[in-house]
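User: Show me an example of a complex going from sequences to structure tokens.

Assistant: Sure. Here are the input components:
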Amino acid sequence: MMPVTPTQTWQFRSPKQHLLRWVGWFWLIALTVFCWNLMTENTIWAFVADAPRQASDIGGRMLPPRWGYLNQLWKPLWDTLNIATLGTLIGVIIAIPVAFLAAGNTTPSRHFVRPLALLIIVTSRSINSLIWALLLVAIIGPGLLAGIIAIGLRSVGFIAKLLYEAIEEIDESQVEAIRATGASNVQVIDYAIIPQILPAFCGISVFRWDINIRESTILGLVGAGGLGLQLQSSLSTLAWNQVTVIFLVILATVIVSEWVSARVRQAVL
Amino acid sequence: MVGAADFYYQPWQHIVLELKALSKIYKTGDRALTDISFSVPAGQVVGLIGPSGAGKSTLIRCVNRLVEPTSGSIQLGPTELTRLNGRALRQARRRIGMIFQEYALVERLTVMENVLSGRLGYVTAWRSFLRRYPQADIDQAFGLLDRVGLGEHCNKRADELSGGQRQRVGIARALEQNPELLLADEPTASLDPKTSRQIMRLIQSVCREMNLPAIINIHDVVLAQNFADRIIGLQAGQVVFDGPPSALTHDVLTRIYGAEDWDQVQQNAETQDDDVLSEAQALEQS
Amino acid sequence: MSREVTSLRAWKRPPILLKDPRWRWTILLGSAIYLVLAISSVDVDWSRVYEGLERGWRFIQGFLTPDFSSRWRDIQIGLIESLTMTLTSTVAGVLISVPIGIGAARNLAPTPVYMICRGIITVSRSFQEIIIAILLVAMFGFGPFAGFLTLTFASIGFLSKLLAEEIEDCDSAQIEAIRATGAGWWQVVNYAVQPQVMPRLIGLSLYRLDINFRESSVIGIVGAGGVGATLNTAIDRYEYDSAGAILIIIIAIVLVVEYSSSYIRRWVQ
């Protein structure tokens, strides 16, 4: 180390930061390489090398799409929409109280209720809706209900998290003003908090609905109804030309739902 | 002068608000208010002046218990406010109208809803949720909106209004409570000088009409002198002056604001002798 | 205080969203009909659900008394696959999405490049990770390599889109100033754009790392490696205590990743 005199202190910080940065990058690269080696330990490279041939083979089977199959997809498509919509509804209904319990400025108890509400949010958010569906199919049997509840349970965390952040960001002076009129807690929520978070709430719900449409298209893979069920059966019979049709239907649905959600959010905000 | 001094010397009917030895110490240990005692009779407009950080805002908020006082007593009419809780506190709050610095309207509600929110302490939660107010409340709200000159705007959203208009809605909301006392926390701080005078004149005249006492926490000394019947000067959480506006001499103001700040304010006022300069800005700049 | 009755005027709150009453009623009625139809299309086998309650209870018990030991080998393999996939795919995703993101920024890229890059982003964003995983597993065989490719592909769409938006939001005055010095395109990117978007890019990458981990625990269900496969087996065999253990590990890792990434983000900016 070089001796550091007071006048030089500032100058010496820069190379030190530089060093720190390079060490950081070095570790990132080393870790990535290590992970890569660990991950590909059991990879059979012959399969990977074979991939272009496989791809062209599958591509060949996928085209031309079997358009006649489309007629069998309307009912599953309807089911998929219902899973997403009803699931979002359930999610919203549960998420609202959870969000109010989790927000620092509306929670009845910071030390007991709030952590509990945050735990619900984290649990719901960490577990993908497909895993929820997997569990629910095992528990209550295959069908739409499992899908709806799965979507609902996954949505709770998402909606509640964004909503409680919105609640924490409200303008407190409006709350104070309503409180000063002698309003009760319920009235404060009704008059001072809800008007402020309503646009955010609508935006979040529609946004989640849009995501749920995407997610509900594949829930059928584990038996929770909808388009995924058709996908599963087409895949298991290697009917790739039907898979193409399903993919296109999913793509169209996703595009339409994204358009709808963008329009609604625009109208609300 | 608008004849405020004459008004000050009229005989008072009765005392509306009485503060005794009110103190507030924040959890951080800061002494915000020390041993504040004064009483306000009906119809009197009190201007509360003092440098920022003197505790003006805390004092006003202690009166309707938005801030919990540490010790002392607050007597509103026959009611002792410091011991109230829950429902009784809310019923006391509805007797005190409050006007805020940044208007504090619920911006996404209509003007009418904002005014009617002054009745929240009187109606049931269910009624207020459905916006089904008694006809008398609605009539009163229309009357007040006409009084503050916003009768045409009742179905506009509050955030469509200008600053001065918003503050008028704020006044209407406070009056809709049929208050026995009006509190105002820097009602003109976010307004331009001309609108500030209009708002102050409006507050002053409704107080006269309704024989309503008011405590107005205000940065702007000239405005306070013009529109208040009585001035209370606060410095470091203590009352250092209490008297008619005419008694506000250079020495008194120096005592309240400290020598440097007050000279600064005066210099600025002299350079802009016609239009009243907002002392608030001047103080912040110094 | 006397109440001055000036006139007897009625007041009703004006409608918030839809001003036209006909539209309002149509939409209200439409959603009511939809709800009835949707709910009636969910045929639930209540006896099956009732039967499932007992199983659900067993799952909750399993969750509360998780069994880490009996399947620990499988869990360990799955976790290592998930974690390595997460890191490598995020790194690869960032490396690829930087050029695509720059190409998809209207203020930097010429029109043809812009169109191509936006096309890539749209394709990547339109499909669910699971669907991509199905295709890639079919091409590259089972295992984490297909998962790595899936997550990389999904990361590209996510990161490039947000990066492009960030670049488009850049202060144009800074870009102009650098351009005015006679700087070339690379120098503009390096001096005017990079400093503005770098903190955000790091933040987004960490956020994607978090998402990739969550996804990596799912794509195993269709054979793309990771802890999802282990979870799937555990649930299929009704080993709820092992499933509970896996879920708890997932939640814990998500928490750690989320917490540390927010820490790093604060440290970076």
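The lines above are the inputs; the final block is the predicted structure for all three components together. Chain A has one domain: 67-268.
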